[in-house]
Structure formats: C-alpha cells, structure tokens
Design brief:
By secondary structure, the protein is α+β, with helices and mostly antiparallel strands. It is built from 4 helices and 4 strands, in the order βαββαααβ. It has one domain. It has a two-stranded antiparallel ribbon. The protein has a two-stranded antiparallel sheet with strand order 2-3. The longest helix is centred in the last third of the chain and has 25 residues. The N and C termini lie close together (6 Å).
C-alpha cells in the first residue's frame, strides 16, 4: 500500500475556506484594497466605519491600509477597539492560511505492492 500526500492550496481556499480574496470590494467586505469604502449604493468613500472594519476583520478581509490607519484619530477607547479589530483580523487571516495549507494523506491501494 502506498501513501500519496496531496497539498491543497488554491482549491482549498475556495472549497474549504469558502471565500476568495478580490482586488476590489467583495460582497462581504466593502473596503477596497486601496482603503476606500464602497457604500451599498455603489458610491466610494475615502473611509468606512469602525463597524464596517469589524465586519471585515471577522472574515480576515480587512485591507492592511485600513488596519494601519484604524483608530489613529480616536480617544483611548477607540484606539483599544481598533487594536481588537486588528488582532481579530490577524487571527482570521491565520485561520484561512492554515486551511489553505492543510495537507491530506490519501491511502492508495495498489496490486503492485
């Protein structure tokens, strides 16, 4: 009996991860890669809201440019909230990466052995 190890990368991101990163806003995160925010009516704003950032972070979709500026103009409470959002985004991105890199072992039965 031989074992074949398959590493699933892009396919796992779609089938297991359940999502694909896009270069523009996605249906589940309205921030664009350049940090702008696409409103529900299609207009583009320079910034979104902290709640919008939290929504994206729960999926690991918060763009780095948004994470970098998140909370910088706020008081201590806002800055603390921003740090929580950034931490959540990092954790979710790590979970997605781990799913993409999962390795599966498949046993192949062969009469040659």
């Amino acid at each position: 009996m031989r074992k074949l190890t398959l590493t699933i990368a892009a396919v796992a991101a779609i089938t297991i991860g359940g999502g694909v990163y896009a270069g523009t806003s996605t249906g589940s995160c309205n921030y664009n890669d350049d940090g702008t925010y696409t409103n529900s009516d299609g207009t583009v704003s320079a910034f979104g809201t902290m709640n919008a950032a939290m929504h994206c972070a729960t999926q690991g979709l918060l763009p780095q440019v948004v994470a970098t500026r998140l909370g910088i103009l706020g008081d201590d409470d806002i800055q603390e909230w921003a740090e929580e959002i950034k931490k959540l985004d990092i954790e979710q991105k790590q979970k997605i990466k781990e799913k993409e890199e999962e390795t599966y072992e498949i046993e192949i039965i062969s009469s040659d052995d």
